[in-house]
Specification:
The protein is of the alpha+beta class. The chain has one domain (10-157): Histidine kinase-like ATPase, C-terminal domain (Heat Shock Protein 90, 2-Layer Sandwich), CATH 3.30.565. 33% of the residues lie in helices and 26% in strands. The protein has helices at residues 23-35, 42-63, 112-117, 126-133, 157-160, and strands at residues 10-18, 71-79, 82-89, 136-142, 145-153. Helix 1 (23-35) runs antiparallel to helix 2 and helix 2 (42-63) runs antiparallel to helix 4 (126-133). The relative contact order is 0.20.
């Protein structure tokens, strides 16, 4: 079997933020500044900003329980035509309330009619939104470290046709 050589990811930026509501705006602004001019269309950049903000809010609220002393870690890398933003928290398998962290296990796809009828929680749109904003999304857990990986292709062709 022949293996395809993949470029080594280039770190564009890495930073941490206190787990305080509102800091998702700082994350999206810094990520946007980092990837500006690196081949994302305006529409792709706006979708990435939305996904970063939502994923960071999840990390702050669900992963770290709004505890400012526990940072959310953000890393931006580029590998070939892909820009990936990794957002990590310390939620592990459960967040401080003891409930499963969003992104773990099997979650029912949001259904507007079920939500309006009260058959589904009004919450639960975050991962659905994120997944539909980026070209690829992955969620990993390593012990207490929970990471969501958001990838956008710099060519823009794959996702911009949907907008």
């Amino acid at each position: 079997m022949t293996q395809v050589a993949r470029p080594t990811p280039e770190r564009l930026d890495a930073f941490t933020l206190p787990s305080k509501p509102g800091n998702e705006r700082l994350a999206l602004a810094r990520v946007a500044g980092t990837v500006q001019g690196r081949g994302l269309s305006d529409a792709s950049l706006e979708r990435l900003k939305t996904a970063v903000a939502e994923a960071t809010m999840n990390a702050i609220e669900h992963g770290n329980g709004n505890r400012a002393e526990i940072p959310v870690e953000v890393e931006v890398t580029r590998s070939g035509d892909d820009i990936t933003v990794a957002i990590s928290d310390q939620g592990g398998e459960t967040h401080p309330g003891g409930e499963t962290h969003p992104g773990h296990g099997d979650h029912e796809e949001p259904d507007l009619l079920k939500k309006l009828d009260g058959d589904q929680s009004p919450r639960g749109w975050g991962l659905f939104l994120i997944r539909n904003m980026v070209d690829a999304m992955d969620v990993t857990t390593d012990g207490q470290r929970h990471t969501i990986w958001l990838t956008m292709r710099t060519t823009g062709a794959a996702h911009d046709e949907h907008v």
